[in-house]
Amino acid sequence: RTSNASQGGKLTIARVLRGSFKDSDTVTGSNGGESRIAGLNMFTAKGLSRIPEAVEGVAVGFSKLDAIATGEAFTTDRNPPAPVVSITIPQPVYAFTLKVKDRKDDVRLSSGLAKLIEEDPSLIFETNPELGEVRLLGQGEMHLRVTLERLLARYQVAVDTRKPKVGYRETIKQNASARGRHKKQSGGHGQFGDVVLEVKPLPRGEGVQFNETITGGVVPRNYIPSVETGVLDYVKKGPLGFPVVDVAVTLTDGSYHPVDSSDAAFQMAARIGMSEAMSAAKPVLLEPILSIELSVPSDATSKATALVSERRGQILGFDGKPDWEGWDVVNAYIPESEVGDLIIKLRSATAGSGSFTTKFHHMEELSGKAAETVVAEAAAAAQQN
Predict the structure, then answer these.
(1) Residue-wise pLDDT tens digits, 124-142
(2) Least CB-packed of 155, 167, 376, 384 within 10 Å?
(3) pLDDT given at position 172
(4) Residues in the chain with pLDDT < 50?
(5) Full DSSP string of 261-325
(6) Gap between the Cα atoms of 107 and 157, Å rounded
(7) Which contiguous run of DSSP H or E holds residue 138?
(8) What is the pTM of this model?
(9) What does DSSP say about strands 53-55 and 20-22: parallel, antiparallel, or unpaired?
(10) What integer pLDDT is reported at residue 254 of this predicted model?
(11) Is residue 288 a contact partner of residue 166, using CB atoms and an 8 Å limit?
C-alpha cells in the first residue's frame, strides 16, 4: 500500500515474497511502470530505521517508488510481474461538494487529494463543470471526513462541504411558436435580426434538435448557423433555470436588414424567440432516476425496502444474493436527490453491513410542490451568484 507524508514523500509498504531488494535497485511494477528505490526502511517501535537490503519474508517501506501504485506487485526483473492480489474498488456511496476556504488553495486541494487517493483508491475526486462544483466521493460520511482531516493536517488545505447538486433537466409538454426580434439603433450601423421559431417535445433521450424550413431567402443562408448558435446557447438554461433536453426547434420564418443584420443580431433574436416559445410550451422539470441494487442480510430486507419506499423509490423486486447465504439483493428505482444519506440509514438498519450500487437509468417528470421547491431554490442560488 502507499503512504504519502507531507515532508518525507511517498512510502510504498510491501512484503518481500521472493529474493531481495537493495537500495538504488530499479523495479518494474505489474502495470509496467519503473522506479528506482530511494531508500529501504524497517518499521520499529521508534519509527523507521534505514536498512541496506530487504530480504525475503520481511515487510519494508520502499521510498519514492513513484510509478508503483497500491495493490501492485513489483520486481527487479525488467518484465512486469503478474499481480499477486486482485483489488475490486467498491463504488462510492456518499459524496461531499468541496469549496476551499482560501481561493489560493485550489491547486493544493487537487494535489493533496491526488496523494490521498493514491493511498486509498476507494476515494474519487471529480469536477462537474455543468454544475460548477468539485466533489469528493467515498464509502460514507466518516470516510470522507477523515480524509478531509488528513488533507488539513498534512497539506494545510481547509475546505467547506455541502450536499452535491442534482443534475435536473427541463423539457416541454406541448408545441409552441414565437417570434424573436432584436432591433437596436445607435450611431452608425444598427442591429437587426428577426426569426420565428417553433418548438415541440421529443421522446426522452433525444436531446435538442435544430432544423429550418426557410424559403424565399427571408433569412439568408449565412445567418442560419447563427440562429442555431443562439438556440443552443439558450438551451443551456431554460425558463425553469435548468438545461433543456428533448426539444425540436425549427426556424420557420424571419426577416433581415441588408445593412444592420449580423451574426450577433440573429443569435440574440434566436435567444429572444426561444425564451418566448419555451415559456409558452408548458416547461416541466425532469429529475434523474437511478437504478439501485441493495445488498442486505435477509432479516433486514423489509427495512431496506421501507427505506427505498419512503424516498419516493419504486421497488422492482428482491431475491437471494448468489453465493451469499442469508443475504438478499433488492432492486429498485430511486430519484438521485433521495440517495444522499441513504447509506447512513441503510447501515443503521443493517448493523453496518448493508451496501448498494447505483447507475443512471432515466429522466422522469417531477411536478407539484417538490418541483416548485427545486425551481425556487435554483432561482435563489442564481440571485446569490
Answers:
(1) 999 988 888 999 999 999 9
(2) 384
(3) 97
(4) none
(5) B-HHHHHHHHHHHHHHHHHHS-EEEEEEEEEEEEEEEGGGHHHHHHHHHTTT-EEEEEEEPTT-T
(6) 10
(7) strand 133-138
(8) 0.84
(9) antiparallel
(10) 95
(11) yes
